Amino acid sequence: MSPASNDSYFFSFYKESGLTSAEALDRLKRALKVKKAGHCGTLDPMAEGLLVVAVGRATKLMRFVTDERKRYLGEFELGKKSPSYDIETPVAIVAPDADTAQVDWERIKGIFNGKIRQIPPAYSAVRVEGVRSYVKARKGETVDLPSKEVEIFSLELTLLDKTRVAFTVECSKGTYVRSLVHDIGAVAGTGAVLSKLTRAAVGDFTIDNAVRVAEVKENPAKVERAKLSMVAFLSSFPAVTVGETLYWRLRNGIEIRSLGMALAEGPNAVFYKDEPVFVIEKEKDIYRYSAYLGE
């Protein structure tokens, strides 16, 4: 096996506004000259900021990144509404007298705290009858999406002027910040649209080391700082080292319970000859192969 840290890693990438996540990923793959890569969580075209990209065999670990909580910085405007809940679709003024000074922001922070239910925007990638919701919405079709439970860990609000509010939110995976802003506007009684959004963190990955595509060739030292090897990423998992016999039993898919391995609750990184080869998950009496990381 080749050293996993050389060809398999996570990369902190700065997605520019105006690009889809797929378009941004394609540009990064060309700049890094890699063939196999995937992003860990989509950002809307309007949004910018941290896009965590998995390269090589690290793509098999993407779920462990997408499951992490996210932190966003942004702004919204009171008194307005739009079909997409942001300024990317036609904006209508629905409350011309909206005033941030007249809103009970402490009440709003109390409502949008902890586990809440929200309905994804019609202009989202949620599938409806096999079709992306935004495709139906762009055709003028009515989209009825079910609500979902998400969690808001913290919400900070700063009044900028009569209609503009800056915010920082830390939230669970699957949270639609546009829906959060829309719902805040509903509670405020004024309506609200998202006007700026930057993703600042995904779990332990932060925007501080994120590299823009133009910097890939210009700043190789920064590119190296933006990489987290697969081995380093797995260092937070409980580790189990196996010998050749046990390794081949795992390769052959033998029932894990029968192997007598000392596994911790949750995901475990299995090493063979100093290389990570499996992630195995234990949940009480249930064992399952989560990923094979070998060549």
Termini gap: 7 Å
User: What is the level 1 CATH name of the largest domain?
Assistant: Alpha Beta
- From the 3D coordinates, which CATH architecture of the largest domain would you assign? 2-Layer Sandwich
How many discrete structural domains?
A: 3
Low-confidence stretches: none
Shape annotation: elongated
**Structural classification:** alpha+beta
- Counting H and I runs of at least 4 residues, what is the number of helices? 10
The arrangement of helices and strands along the chain is: HEHEEHEEEHEEEHEEHEEHHEHEHEEE
What amount of the residues lies in strands? 25-35%
Question: CATH homologous superfamily of the largest domain - what is it?
Answer: Pseudouridine synthase
Mean pLDDT: 94
Using only C-alpha atoms, the radius of gyration works out to: 22 Å
Main sheet? 10 strands, mixed
CATH fold group of the largest domain: Pseudouridine synthase
- Residue share in helix: 10-25%
DSSP E strands, number:
18
